[in-house]
Each structure stands twice: as structure tokens, then as C-alpha cells.
Design a protein that fits this description.
Elements: E1 9-10, E2 16-17, E3 26-31, H1 36-45, E4 51-58, E5 78-80, H2 89-96, E6 101-104, H3 108-120, E7 126-129, H4 136-145, E8 150-153, H5 159-174, E9 179-186, H6 196-209, E10 216-219, E11 231-238, E12 245-251, E13 256-262, H7 267-280, E14 286-288, H8 290-296
Parallel strand pairs: 3-4, 3-6, 4-5, 6-7, 7-8, 8-14, 9-11, 10-11
Antiparallel strand pairs: 1-2, 9-12, 12-13
The chain binds NADPH dihydro-nicotinamide-adenine-dinucleotide phosphate and the ligand O=C(O)C1=N[C@H](C(=O)O)C[C@H](O)C1.
Biased composition (Polar residues): 208-217
Active site: 186, 190
Subcellular location: Cytoplasm
Length: 307
């Protein structure tokens, strides 16, 4: 972690850089900076004393406020990652700006590209990955990056989902024969289905069932579709601006258990991801999970006085 003090200047990518902050903190880069999560992360990162928000990385620089020297609510630099390539590219910028942690909530393809840059950069940069929807090959690539880069990937950075997952595992171990249906509901802009969280919950259920044969996941039902004993129904709904709802229904002969988590806003995900960023800075290469952050009690709710 660094605590440098420099002036506004143009970097080698000809991008305006204003290292206006003298506060200590984890030096952060945010990808997908104008996306739904990117916007939430930028605004929250600017408020936290434990974080020094340095780079906003975006394909759409016009939608990210222009750098304003001496302003705490402006990103220090905007690097377009597509379009005209810069001289040094993302790797060079991570080095020039001494980035400690890159936080990524984008798309699977974009995120692999960013993690490649983090891995190649000549500085020790860690990554927090919130992106969901990876295929198996992309998941393996992330694991190989983690051999040389500290990476914490989580399909959901809310504390409530962490608790829900533990509760689901407990119920499934206690009531292994109960039928299970998983339903997730998200905003109409969400691309991947089922949600990353639903996939994680399905993995948790599988581990808790401890069966030699895995359950079949049935995605919705139509027509003549009687339920089979070993299947888990999976349902994805998309509507409006719902930040995220996950429901796990478990039913036996004459009783029903329902565990539901409802995200009130994207702030809960951003807060968890920024706690994770502070936790991972300076750690050794490896794949980490969000539980480690929660177990360590990392909580960066201290805000800048002027925010
Ligand atoms: N783990 C968690 O807790 C959470 C995970 N998510 C996941 O985070 C991801 C992003 O979600 P959300 O913010 O709603 O999505 P948005 O579509 O709002 O934002 C995604 C951003 O990714 C960037 N992007 C898209 N395509 C490319 C590309 N080809 N190259 C470079 N950048 C690209 C763009 O940023 P720009 O325009 O700045 O270039 C875009 O705005 C999703 O996978 C979602 O499931 C979401 C919420 C919580
Ligand atoms: O895209 C979203 O919005 C969300 N995505 C994550 C997921 O796929 O599980 C987490 C959260 O539910 C919001």
C-alpha cells in the first residue's frame, strides 16, 4: 500500500491524472466504472477513509465525471480500454498509478481481459471480482491467474447472502430428502441466468447433500413435467430495477421452509466488495473467498469527513 503525494499531470497514455489525495489508503482501480455496480462503487469508494480511489476504467468515459483536480468526488484518471489503445495499456497504468487493488464488476469476457492485465502488470496488484456468468474455461483461467495474483471472487458480496448460504447448507444437511426449488429475481438489465448467486447456492446444496449422484437442475417447467426426486427447480425472473432477490424453498410431506434474501440496493454489494479490497491488499497470491473477509471482521464503514 502506498501513500504518495503528487500533482496533476498527463500520464503516458495522455490521460489526465490528478493525484490530489494525500490520505493513506488502498489505491483502487474500478473497471466497468459507468455500469450499475461501477457507479455505486465509485461513489462509495470516494467516501471511505480506508480507500484512495485512483483509476476509473471504462469504455464509456463520457459517462464518468471528468477528472477534477483537488476534488475528492472525481476519479483520478479515465482509461478507455477499448477504442484507441493507449501507449502503455492497462498494465502500464496500473504500474504508473501504483494500484493496490482492481475491483471488477463487468462481463466475463471483459473481466478475463482485465485480470490478464493485472496478472501481467509489473506491480503487486490484487483483484476483487464480482462479475458473474463465467463458463468453465474462464473459471480455470481465473484459477491460473491466482497462482501469481491474489484474487477474491464472489458471486455475491452481501453479508446477508453469506448468512443465507450457511443457513441453506444447514437445512439441507438436516433435511436431505426435502424437495428444493431456487428462485432468483433481478432487474431487467441482467444478462446471466440463473444469477451467479443462485449457481453458488446450487453448489452449496450439492455439497451439503453429499450424494454420489448430483441432482438435476430443471430450469423452469413446461408441459408434462412431473417432478423427479433428485431434481432441483431453478427459476430466473427479470423485472424493473430489482437489485436482487434469492429464495430457497424446501418442502417435505407436510411442512415448508422458505429462506429469502432481498437486496434493498446495490450499496450492500459495493460495501462488501470494498471491504474485500481493503482486506486483500498486500496478501500473497491465491484464490480467496468472501467468508475470509467476514471472518476477519473487516468493515470499512469509516467515512471521509468531507463526504
Ligand atoms: N458479486 C456481486 O455481489 C454482484 C455481482 N454483480 C455482477 O456484476 C456484473 C456487472 O453488473 P452491472 O453493474 O449490473 O452491469 P452493467 O451492465 O450495468 O455494467 C457492466 C459494465 O461492464 C463494462 N463492460 C461491458 N462490456 C465490456 C467490454 N466488452 N469491455 C470492457 N468493459 C465492458 C461496462 O462498463 P463501462 O460502460 O464503464 O465501460 C458496463 O457498463 C454482472 O456480472 C453482475 O452479475 C452485480 C451486482 C452484485
Ligand atoms: O446482476 C446483478 O444485479 C446481481 N448479480 C449477482 C448475481 O448474479 O448473483 C449478485 C446480485 O444478486 C446482483
Amino acid at each position: 500500500m502506498s501513500n504518495t503525494e503528487t500533482n496533476s499531470h498527463k500520464d503516458s497514455t495522455n490521460t489526465t491524472v490528478s493525484n490530489s489525495s494525500t490520505q493513506p489508503g488502498v489505491r483502487l482501480a474500478i473497471t466497468g466504472a459507468s455500469g450499475r455496480m461501477g457507479t455505486e462503487l465509485r461513489s462509495m469508494a470516494n467516501e471511505k477513509t480506508a480507500i484512495e480511489f485512483v483509476l476509473a476504467i471504462t469504455q464509456t468515459p463520457d459517462s464518468v465525471p471528468a477528472p477534477k483536480p483537488d476534488s475528492v468526488d472525481a476519479p483520478d484518471a479515465i482509461i478507455p480500454v477499448s477504442g484507441e489503445p493507449s501507449e502503455t495499456g492497462l498494465e502500464g497504468s496500473l504500474e504508473t498509478h501504483n494500484i493496490d487493488v482492481l475491483v471488477d464488476f463487468t462481463t466475463p469476457d471483459a473481466s478475463i481481459e482485465y485480470l490478464d492485465a493485472v496478472d501481467t502488470a509489473n506491480v503487486d496488484v490484487a483483484a476483487i471480482v464480482g462479475t458473474t456468468g463465467y463458463d468453465d474455461a474462464q473459471r480455470s483461467m481465473i484459477s491460473s491467474f491466482a497462482e501469481t495474483t491474489p484474487i477474491l471472487k464472489a458471486s455475491n458480496f452481501s453479508r446477508g447472502i453469506a448468512a443465507l448460504r450457511r443457513a441453506v447448507s444447514e437445512v439441507v444437511s438436516t433435511l436431505p430428502s426435502y424437495d428444493i426449488e431456487v428462485t432468483e429475481t433481478h432487474h431487467n438489465g441482467k444478462r446471466d441466468a440463473p444469477s451467479g448467486t443462485a449457481v453458488t447456492i446450487l453448489d452449496d446444496i450439492e455439497s451439503a447433500q453429499n450424494n454420489s449422484e448430483s441432482s438435476t437442475h430443471v430450469h423452469g417447467r413446461v408441459g408434462d413435467a412431473p417432478r423427479h426426486e433428485s431434481e432441483i427447480g431453478v427459476h430466473a425472473r427479470r423485472a424493473g430495477d430489482i437489485a436482487g432477490k434469492h429464495e430457497v424453498l424446501m418442502a417435505g410431506g407436510d411442512e415448508v421452509l422458505e429462506l429469502t434474501h432481498r437486496a434493498g440496493s446495490r450499496g450492500i454489494f459495493a460495501a462488501g466488495a470494498l471491504d474485500a479490497a481493503v482486506w486483500i491488499a498486500g496478501r500473497s497470491p491465491g484464490e480467496y473467498d468472501f467468508d475470509a473477509v467476514l471472518d476477519a471482521g473487516t468493515d470499512t464503514t469509516e467515512y471521509n469527513e468531507d463526504s
